[in-house]
Amino acid sequence: MNNLTWQHLNEKFEEFPILKGEGVPITEIDAVSTTLGMPFPEDYREFVHRYGSAMVGAFPIFGLRPAEVMGNDWSVIDVNQDYRTQQ
User: Fold this and answer.
1) CA–CA distance, 43 with 2 (Å, rounded to integer)
2) What pLDDT is recorded for position 74?
3) Within 13 Å and on the Cβ side, how many CA atoms surround 30?
4) pTM attached to this predicted model
């Protein structure tokens, strides 16, 4: 993502902090990537590092720390395994 996109996200999350979770250390993100057996794109890694997870407009961005508006009964591992089961 470019700097302007990050700036817009930061502004939106400052105005509405319940839309984002807590940032996550890169080491934890990489450990989950290894657990799932798939590399995460750099933009996604940076997003989860900064925000944990978030609602961006109507779209949930699943990560490792739930945003308040997303509830607490999921993880990116659960979501991936659920979709893999459904194929």
Assistant:
1) 10
2) 76
3) 3
4) 0.87
